[in-house]
Amino acid sequence: MTIKRTIKIRRLTPKSVRPYAVIIDSACVKDDGRKNCFGILLKEKSKGWRIGYLIVRDKTIPRLESHPDSLETFEPVSGKTVIAFAPALHPDKAKVFLLDKGVVVKKGVWHDVAPLSKRSEVKIFENIEVKTSYHKLAEKIVI
User: Fold this and answer.
1) Does residue 17 fall inside a structural domain?
2) Which domain does 124 fall in, by range?
3) Which tens digit of pLDDT belongs to each residue from 80-99?
4) Among 78, 92, 106, 109, who pairs with 121 as Cys (CB 3.0-4.6 Å)?
5) Rg value, the chain, Cα
6) Is the pLDDT of residue 52 over 70?
7) Burial track 1-13 (b if 16+ CB lie within 10 A, e otherwise)
8) Is there a contact between 119 and 79 (Cβ–Cβ < 8 Å)?
9) In CATH, what number is assigned to the domain containing residue 133?
10) How far is the C-alpha of 122 from the C-alpha of 16, rounded, in Å?
């Protein structure tokens, strides 16, 4: 039997997602307001990256996944999407956030996405080779 629960959708802020992810924004840029500026959000040694494109239709999150050896970006393209995060040691303690800006998910963080709209689309960057672990949630998240 699957148990359903109501979950609060939170706003993505640097503080609210600090345990799980880094927001992709201009905070890393020293902007003087006069010319083009470039900043480094983070650095990661890698043997290469791959770019993925995800079309999301399932409004339930029955399980979370984790990548112990790879960062992963989730960047909203169209529709409205939520992203669930849970700490590495507590995968059943998920928090759900509105994915209204790109994020870099930290290694080992449990995560998954679901649409608020009928369909949403998300661009994903991750290591060229990714190890994935799955955790079936005790209580399925229904959007």
Assistant:
1) yes
2) 3-26+45-142
3) 999 999 999 999 999 999 99
4) 78
5) 16
6) yes
7) eeeeeebeeeebe
8) yes
9) 2.60.120.480
10) 21
